[in-house]
Amino acid sequence: MSKIIEGLKYSESHEWVKVEGNIAVIGVSDFAQAEMGDITYVDMPEVDDTVDAGEEFGALESVKASSELISPVSGTVVEVNAELEDAPEKVNEDAYAAWIIKVEMSDPAQLDALLDAAAYKAQIGE
Amino acid sequence: MSEVQIPPEQLQKTCLYPAHVALQAKMSPFAGFMMPIQYSTITVEHLAVRENVGMFDVSHMGEVFVEGPQAEDFVNHIFTNEIRGFQPGKVLYGMMCYPDGGTVDDLLVYREFQPDHFLLVVNAANIDKDFAWIQEQAKGFDCKVTNASDSWGQIALQGPKAEETLIKVLGYQEAASLGFYEFCDVLYKGERLILSRTGYTGEDGFEIYTSPANIVEIWDRFIAAGVQPCGLGCRDTLRFEAGLLLYGDELSAEISPVMAGLGMFCKYEKDFVGKEALLDQKAGNLARKLVGIEIEDKAIPRAGYPVETPDGKEVGVVTTGYHSISLDKSICFALVDKAFSALDTPLCIRIRKKVFPGKVVKKRFYQTNYKK
């Protein structure tokens, strides 16, 4: 059974969002990392890139497959987790510590469309 | 990928299916069969084969027997490689082609110890198509062809410790005297067992063919001896690094052996189906060639991604790509316009929104370790 943290927001495509003021910290859920297996590469945008809610902003790659990362919110990338460039396995080790990007939100109301921990738990059938 | 979608209830199972389930393998459809993708992780299984020994269930492969007075003439007629003068106990790799040079399949031909008997080992996804093609071509030849695929199971035991493991577990001392691409017949519980020093990993190893009941027992004996079971996930990463092609990805009805760079397995001193078309391509009349490309980044080129020139012109497509486990490089096979196929040609791969520069390299990315 995968780990789900209370207080975070989740997307149906398995990203999590931690809200810090106007900043959305975005990563992938423990369920997603387990489904992917050993992650070998995290494809991330660059600082100052814009991201759109529901649109791809990067990808996770395992040996066999790649999986798109979908942004839960719209805004501007203010920081990327450069640590993942050389240590993508950190996503497997602790998916909630290994955040991927931080986005300055242009429309924080988009958060309301995301799932809370209980709803996400129901979605993945646990 | 060219994988055809088959409803789950129509998927076949190999004789080792219960063994895979018992080992809690991650299972997935492949070539019409429900097959193990991995038992642990692809990396663990890949490294077991490179550094120690691992085994694969390859019972899904097809076995077609050809026998009769004109068996040699017939096999030579459909096979691109030359089997005249090749001795009993030897195995040859080659292709069957359509008259237009497109590939029906790539296969192994075994010259058996009984005169005028041959075994053709074909890809699982192609068994029905191949057998129909072989039967059609055999009209007019005095020989009999039999599809015995359901009567044979197969295990591939691969890695630098394969010989030692095989002799220790099964006791066949004969294994030590087999060179690469040689085989011998032995008995297991009174039934025929073909011990073949062949494989699809770039390492030394054996392919063991015998009855399904024997295969199940042999699998369990290897498991008890601590041999790592390996799934199709690492079978693909291993064969890819070793520069070995996969039908459906790098060979197809549209991709000839010449386009795929397999000209050394086509012998033009004899006649075979597709020869004229292949000679024409060899003389320069071909649009695309298969190349290796290495990119300067950890991003992974996957099948279907576009290949571009540095100025952005699309000139090809990736057929298989990985971040290589043994080499720690992002590499791929790609079909590209012939004008861009020379070694060191700068080519880029478009991976999602970004373009990664790279260059054409040799397709054999990994130095193979075959028994001499």
Please explain how this structure is put together:
The complex is a heterodimer of chains A (126) and B (372). Chain A is α+β, with helices and mostly antiparallel strands and 126 residues long. Chain A has one domain (13-107): RNA polymerase II/Efflux pump adaptor protein, barrel-sandwich hybrid domain (OB fold (Dihydrolipoamide Acetyltransferase, E2P), Beta Barrel). Helix content of chain A is 17%, strand content 35%. Chain A has four helices and nine strands, in the order E-E-E-H-E-E-E-E-E-H-H-E-H. In chain A, a hairpin with a 4-residue loop joins strand 1 and strand 2. The longest helix of chain A has 7 residues, at 30-36. The mean pLDDT of chain B is 96. In chain B, strand 16 (314-323) and strand 17 form a beta hairpin. In chain B, 47% of the residues are buried. Chain B contains eight helices and 19 strands. Chain B is an alpha+beta fold and 372 residues long. In chain B, strands 10-11-12-9-3-13 form a six-stranded mixed beta sheet, with helices on both faces. Chain B has helices at 17-22, 42-51, 71-78, 127-138, 162-170, 212-224, 232-241, 275-282, and strands spanning 26-30, 33-38, 54-57, 62-67, 91-97, 103-111, 117-122, 144-147, 153-158, 183-188, 191-196, 205-210, 228-229, 288-295, 306-308, 314-323, 330-337, 346-351, 354-361. At the A-B interface, strand 4 and strand 6 of A face helix 7 of B.
Helix tally of chain A equals 4
How many helices of chain B? The count is 8
Cα distance spanning the termini of chain B:
35 Å
Large-scale geometry of chain A = globular
How much strand content do the residues of chain A show?
Answer: 25-35%
Most residues in contact, chain pair and counts: A-B, 14 and 19 residues
List keywords for this structure.
heterodimer; A: 126 residues; alpha+beta; OB fold (Dihydrolipoamide Acetyltransferase, E2P); six-stranded antiparallel beta sheet; 17% helix; B: 372 residues; six-stranded mixed beta sheet; six-stranded antiparallel barrel
